[in-house]
Each structure stands twice: as structure tokens, then as C-alpha cells.
């Protein structure tokens, strides 16, 4: 089911993947370089409803409008905040999440919106080649607010490799994975195996989230 939700930045779209008896809703926003067709978002939407988790893939207004460039963070946050009531409407507690820029939005807004946890896929800890421009404060802000926070990060992600994250970060590394969790054909882990590892790790983590 696709739901259109008006926001100050234009219409957003929520693609619902409902669980039969949901105990949680996992809201996932996309990155700045792509949409909800990302391999990890699709894999989670397909796998998690069987675990009692309804997945809501959220298209930000700039993508719905067909634009190529994401707007400023404050605009992304405003749209996410405006559509949050629609995510809460089904009833179960909501876990805020997303990939890349969508993970940053989730981290920045989760505490204020009443999310019960945060899932950060491919968190862009810094621009490629510029580790001094760290965004760790956004990630630590969610965890510091007492929200369980899981980071799933490719071992070869140029936006931040697992070992670069602050100590104490709850992080699941994806062997050989890049920023999009693609793995080389020569790797000892296949693409489907890598995605299965991501969905299994997220499902296990969500089992521990109150719902």
C-alpha cells in the first residue's frame, strides 16, 4: 500500500509493507543518491514482516517530485517530522531508520519524535577522504538520548569504515560491503548472502526492542 502524506516540502510517500500482527513499525528513509529501491531497504521490507515488524519505506518529497538533488538537512528533517504522525497511526511503537542521509535524519529527529530506537544503515560518518569532518555527534545524539541505536556498515564504506566509529557504537559490519552494501564478485561472501546477513542482524536486534 502506498500512502501520500503532505509535508511543508511537498508530498511524501510511504510504501507500507505490513506485518500480520505487528509489534513494531520500522520507518526507513532513503539516501541522497537514490530512493527506496536500494538493495538493503528492499531486503528489509521483504524479510521483516514475518518477524512481526511492519516496514514503512519513506520517499522524501524531493524524490516524489522527481528532483535529482536532495535539499538541505533542515528541509529533510521538516518533511520527516511532518509525516511522523502517519507512521504512528497504525499503533505499534516506531523505530526510526534510514540509509545514509536518511540515517542522519533519523538520528537527528528520533528523540524529539518519540521513536523507540534508531537503525542507521550506511551511516555517512564523514565525506569520503575527509575523516576530520565527522558527523559522529548526530549518531551519538540519538544514543545519548537513551535510544537503542544499531549501525549496519559496509567494511569498505568510504563514508566511514566500521573501525572509524566511536567506541561503544553498536555496529554490525558487512564484510566487503561498500556504501550501498554491494560486495565484489571475487569476495568470499555473495551479494544475497550479504543481504541475508543484514536482515538477520536487524531482525535479531529488533527482537530486543520493546513493542
Automatic annotation (TrEMBL):
The name this protein goes by in its record: Hydrolase
Entry-linked InterPro entries: AB_hydrolase_fold, KANL3/Tex30_Abhydrolase, NSL3/Tex30
Residue ranges annotated for the KANL3/Tex30 alpha/beta hydrolase-like domain, each copy included: 25-206
UniProt keyword terms in alphabetical order: Hydrolase
Domain of life: Bacteria
GO MF annotation terms: hydrolase activity
SUPFAM superfamilies named in the record: alpha/beta-Hydrolases
Pfam families noted in UniProt: Abhydrolase_11
